[in-house]
Amino acid sequence: MINNQKGFTLAESLVVLSIFMILSLVTAISLKPQHAVLEDAAFFTQLKADLYYAQNYAISHQHEVSVVFIPSEYKYYMFLRTEVPPIVERTYSTNINLTVGTLPFYFKFLQDGNVNKFGSFVIHTQKKDYLLTVLIGKGRFYVTEK
């Protein structure tokens, strides 16, 4: 008598399922640290773009543009006057914290693109600390790893 069954035994199926689950777990664990790195990169890219936008807006519209960070609410704003809606309003991750340095959380881009205050403040992320520095003259700024 020939036994011609086509299929897998329960043990074979469990072995394959176990291997699949182990590979899935290893992949999920290895992606978690990448999430923090990508979150940091996205924050800094957006922040730089918003600061450049505020500076260009000040120059092109010949108005002062205020930049305000509110660390307790994880937000920053860029506006012309307080009674009108902001030109930029962003929230950022609760994994990012700001600490005042020589630059307060409030400064302005003047009509010529310069800033009214200069200095730096610290940005703490899950992995690293960064220093946002605003330079005197022409309103240039940069972010460096601390």
Molecular structure report:
By secondary structure, this protein is of the alpha+beta class. The chain has a single domain, classed as minor pseudopilin epsh fold (3-Layer(bab) Sandwich), CATH 3.55.40.10. The protein has one helix and eight strands. The strands form two sheets. Strands 3-2-1-5 form a four-stranded antiparallel β-sheet, with helices on one face. Strand 2 (75-79) and strand 3 (88-91) form a beta hairpin. The chain is elongated, with a radius of gyration of 25 Å. The mean pLDDT is 90.
What is the strand and helix layout of this fold?
Elements: H1 10-61, E1 65-70, E2 75-79, E3 88-91, E4 97-99, E5 106-109, E6 119-124, E7 129-134, E8 141-145
Antiparallel strand pairs: 1-2, 1-5, 2-3, 4-6, 6-7, 7-8
Low-confidence stretches: none
The pLDDT mean sits at 90
Strand content: 25-35%
**Structural class designation:** alpha+beta
- CATH architectural type: 3-Layer(bab) Sandwich
Q: Helical segment tally?
A: 1
Measured distance between first and last alpha carbons: 77 Å
* CA radius of gyration: 25 Å
Main beta sheet, described? Answer: 4 strands, antiparallel
CATH homolog superfamily: minor pseudopilin epsh domain
Strand arrangement, largest sheet? 3-2-1-5
H-E order: HEEEEEEEE
What name does CATH use for the topology? minor pseudopilin epsh fold
- Count of strand segments: 8
